[in-house]
Amino acid sequence: MSTRTGRATRTGQYLALAGYLVFLAFPFLWLISTAFKPARELGSLHPTWIPDHPTLDNFRQAFDEQPLLQAAANSALAAVSAGVICVAIATPMAYVMARHRSKLSAAATGWVVISQAFPFVLLIIPLFLVLKNLQLINSLAGLIMVYVVWSLPFALWMLVGYVRAVPAELEEAASVDGAGRLRTLVSVTAPLLAPGIVATALFAFITAWNEFFFALVLLKTPEKQTLPVVLTHFIGAEGAADLGPLAAAAFLATLPSLLLFAFIQRRITGGMLAGAVKS
Fold this sequence. Notes:
Blueprint: H1 2-35, H2 39-42, H3 57-65, H4 68-99, H5 103-115, H6 120-133, H7 140-165, H8 168-176, H9 181-210, H10 213-218, H11 227-231, H12 243-278
Helix pairs in contact: 1-12, 3-12, 4-7, 4-9, 5-7, 7-9, 8-9, 9-12
């Protein structure tokens, strides 16, 4: 009886997982289908999954209508910078919070979690005023600063968990062998934190790459706008979307995040397993 119950439970779990994957994949698959459809099929009353006459005209039109390459370069610069700076700041902070526990550390952790509940609208006015005083409005430097501040609490929370997962006994053993604090951090702790650092940097990158609201408010010059903002230019004043080019541009904007995650996720898993063996 227990064997049948276990099989039924696993079958239900697999079915639920398959349904969830279909739910997640549907918008992306429909986006791909729309990107390759000619204008006649886009206006059809009987839409199909696979285009009858696939075309690249939507991609050509998207690049002709909007400066997608410049916007992608702006997004890449903002996202990569935010990821690197965020990790550089969060890693030593997380180590201190994880290894030197106190009431102050607990309060800081609580504040990190609570700060994630603040809505964008609540923050945009003080952020705008601060950046205005620093003369960083309408600049990628100001936007990068905002992305770092916004991603830092969650990045710090993630890395604290990774640091706590590294046994303190390894550092103590290295200290007994004569290694100093810096040598211990570089040679012992840092390699085991590599999967966490990569995952945190990936989180900060994707957050900045997909972010729209801050970029819309802070960047006014078309040459400095990021990709999510430029995508809104395919929608007219009355809400009528140029559906084909919009789908093509949105598909291209989605690819970097997907490819980056697909390239890194195996290395994250391998690094975690390697760290577990070393422990």
